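User: Please predict structures.

Assistant: First:
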Amino acid sequence: MAGLAAQLAKHRATAEGLGSNQQAVKYLGQDFKSLRQECLDSGVLFKDPEFPACPSALGYKDLGPNSPQTQGIIWKRPKELCSSPEFIVAGATRTDICQGGLGDCWLLAAIASLTLNEALLYRVVPRDQSFQKDYAGIFHFQFWQYGEWVEVVIDDRLPTKNGKLLFLHSEANNEFWSALLEKAYAKLNGSYEALSGGSTVEGFEDFTGGISEFFDLKKPPANLYLIIRKALRTGSLVACSIDVSSAAEIEAITSKKLVKSHAYSVTGIEEVDFCGCPEKLIRLRNPWGEVEWTGAWSDNAPEWSFIDPRRKEELDKKAEDGEFWMSFSDFVRQFSRLEICNLSPDSLSSEEVHKWNLVLFNGRWTRGSTAGGCQNYPATYWTNPQFKICLDEVDNSQEDGASGSLCTVLLGLMQKNRRRKKRLGQGMLSIGYAIYKIPRELENHRDVHLSRDFFQGHRPSACSKTYINLREVSDRVQLPPGEYLVVPSTFEPFKDGDFCLRVFTERKAEAMEIGDMVAGNPHEPLPSELDQEDSQFRSLFEKLAGDDLEINANELKDILNGVFSRRKDIDFDGFDINTCREMVSLMDSDGTATLGLLEFKTLWLKMRKYLEIYLEADEDHSGTIDAHEMRTALKKAGFILNDQVQQTIAVRYACSKLCISFNSFVACMIRLETLFKLFRLLDKDKNGTVQLSLAEWLCCALV
């Protein structure tokens, strides 16, 4: 309940600008300026209670409290490691990033690329902090997280062994911005160990809010050199790696001194005149700060002797900082994967730079309601969240080789907070998406999910290349104008997870969530059914009600449980007293807290209708209905509910096996009818909103 309320409050705050880079969300509610001032006033250096300098901050398994790797670790502040520490020495550069004893080369490659763009760097690494002015042992950094910017506060106690930093460090012994940045990112993800293993684009996106594209260098596009050149010119972040075929090859070093399964930053691309012919070169950096390519165009290679000396002086960097040049053709042969994070994102398909339009959706897959799995599971696939894109305007210019009038869409599906769940043994989910052309007769359809019948009769127009356990699956597609449905899903059904879906379009396009409508028109018995002259029913009522001819909640409980417990075709555990009280409250028109003849008959007819709907939804005649079938049952009962409400119902009324008994089904129906009735009474202006005092809210919630 508290979590749902927090989500609603956050949604409203986001609408008012919270989460922008200028108004970042305070992670764990910690405010840098106020905390720093408290420390300055008290004269005590900051100690972060939310990420204390203790074994749990290091990790949970390989870096767990009893691991040999964590023995002898001492947490020290920079002023305990050197006499005159500096936050940044002579500007933040690529050589400030040297890998330590943590397998987060992917993150270090992203940080190294970040230093190439000062504007981006200082958005992540605010400049209002140092070890001199207003030093209080507290620092802060900003990261993009699933559609919003988050400010993370840390203290400057860093893990050391034998007097040296254990993890990320700078070449300069007195420079600490990169080590502190790594700590802040570790805090955001739960621990240092949570950062082990990953894709460089994850760091790229968390530093920029951009969206990434992947290129298979075994099948590179013909204009790959131009794509990379434009990416670097427009400030996009670029990385590459060499795939491995087995775990034994991880971080294996080739004969030419390239490291497999290791993230390299792409830091430059140039063309030189080599013996009268143009030669394309690319510059890479190994975050280890050493182990460099030894092939053609490496630091001491003979090729440098055959180009203009001034050009050689400009390009040939001999410092052993892990950075090196190689020919572009060797690069394509040696490396397997290229990753580019588009910042705006700008189009990388042509030389024209232009901005894209973005729509971002936050969603959730919940077991039993919206976690439908992929197309292999047709019974549940249709219950996944659904989003519509309306593409009306074609691109200004088409890519080489494209034909016809098309609209470019860049989709990114990102699962949230999975690194933090590593500690619990929960890794990344396998995720993907499919895009369907909406036929003309359904183009105005947006109130409720498209049904199972739609997906059985239509194939996707495009889909993600594969379901994969990466944080984000993204791809660029080109589609003819029209309306399209995007269905994001996990590979298997019944997998809980939060996600955000980003839809970038080259031209302005409308995008919306399907099934965002909430409406209720529950079944009401016909006047003829309520005929009070029904002598048989009157006789039954008089027998049940007793001398006062009224039925209270306790009597109702005995009556209903006696009737439905005899049925063999439903799973029935009995109505509890609270459900029966709510039934009475819903039907009670005269405020007696009891039911008269007409009120009881109305309830009885409702119960009969609920039973009919329940049995119809129970397709396998098991006596229960599956939680994902509630969407259909609710619709038949007159309720149209969005994903958020559907998820809440699944959590509240389904058992651990995701089944809903008849008594839980009726309890849900009665509760919904009560809530809709209350809302209509309070919505005096009929504008879909109500305003309540705290006392009024409590009365409504407790009814």
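Second:
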Amino acid sequence: MGALRAIALLIFAIWLGTSSAHAEKRVALVVGNSAYKTVPRLANPANDAALVGGMFRKAGFDIVDIKLDLSGSEMRKALRDFGGKARDAEVAVVYYAGHGIELDGVNYLIPTDATLETDSDVLDETIALDRALFAVEPAKQLRLIILDACRDNPFAKTMKRTIASRAIGRGLAKVEPTSPNTMIAFAAKAGSTASDGDSKNSPFATALVDRLPTPGLDLGKAFRFVRDDVLKSTGNKQEPFVYGSLGGDDVALVPAKPAAAPGPQANPQDSIRRDYELALQAGNRDAWEAFLQAYPDGFYAGLARAQLKNVAAEEARAAAAAKARQAEDEKAKLAAERANKAEQEKAAAAAKAAENARLAAEKAKQIEEAKAAAAEQRRKDAETAVAKALADKQAAEKALAEKIANDKTAAVLAAKQATEKSQREGEQKVAAVTPTQSMPGLSSQETAKLVQSELRRVGCHPAPADGIWTDSSQRSLTLFNKYAGTKFDSKQASLEALDAIKAKASRVCPLVCDHGFKADGDACVKIACRAGYRVNDDNECEKVQDNKPVATREDAKPRDDARKKAETAPAKPQAAGQLICNSAGCRPVKPGCRVVPYQQFKHGAVSHGQPQEECN
């Protein structure tokens, strides 16, 4: 009878709980941000929001606001409006799927219009998690935040840091709610990221929809089931985590279904079945043990023992998980202790290495200073070489420019001469019918200047070409007639003479050089004799006689007479137009003058010098 009273009390308590649950007001805000403007679109958040929102509606929530792809201003407005709806509610839930970011240990939800070019933009363009906590805070019994926002965040990869030491974590940071009866569920534990999965919904959203709507299932246990489902579906790569805590009483997101009102029991099995269903709704060890005490035998007793084994298996699993966590903590503790010892040894080794590095740095500094000095010297040498190379280059460019200018001048002159020649040829054809003494449009002075220039080229006219036909010019043309075998009138410059002179490609009039010089092309060069030889009177090299007899006064007298005779003898007149040459060059003999050899007596011998010009 005591067992029956216990079951009756349990049934009454469940009935009271369910009847009070029916009076509760439950509200939910569901946000899914997929269409981000500055980063790639997320495939699942919009689908996840629709799935979770539908779950809340099927669970009988009084208000379910589903919002998709909200900008910053739209998210703030949605949270503000939802805060007003949560003021008279017992249960308030906010579900968010999309991108989130952690900055300096604070979590932020990212709207679709955020750019986040720098870390300081997070404060202006995102919504702090505390704002969502503020929206659910008025709820009287349960405040729940569910974040499917632990994805790999592309904003953090491109964001510029204004402070190098500022921390931008991976995933979301751990939080500890300060308000009672408040829970925050992450799709992945702090510091890790969540997967979108291969289907249209994330593994986390799928597990939520499967577990949370179970009538009468405590939220703490429901989220543990969610954790197990996600670990299994992701190959233990993603582990959801819940922060915050609830009181000692079970809190279910969906209350247990109310028990049927008691009535006349025609069949005893109906009463056993109802008690079994009540124990099934409770689902804990105490309920099943109470049922077995009341009904130790029969069909439902076997089912109850099976359920009790299931509860025992779950408790064993939970104990094993707790033991595994404790082992992991112990392992981490031992690893930390070993790490401390290793750190001490590492610090000692680092100190020794630092001293060795200091000594090596000192030595390296000395080596680098020597290298720097050598490099500085090489730089100075290189600058000197560059300056010299630049000067040589400038000189070469100047020489090249001069050569190009000279070549250009020569080309212009050649073109001019070719034009003049063709003009002369045409005029000569005309002159064959009507002889003329000057070119058409060319004055006699210009014709004379051209003839003088050509006579100078063939070595017959040493004076400059000035266009004045003087006796000197006449003698030059006469000299050309002599050596070229022509008979042009020397009293005037004619085109016929000009053509005949131009036809000569080289020197016509001979080059007369002083004693000790010889002609070499168009120049006089000094005759060089080897050691022990000298130039004789015939301009040839002869050996020097060392033992020549010294002339006496008697011997010198005939030589003096010969010298006087040579000085008083009349000079042989030179041919008209003959040149007189010395070391300075050649020029025609002046009119009325003649060339006489230069002789002098020195130490009893006759010495020859440069020829002299003697005028009347």
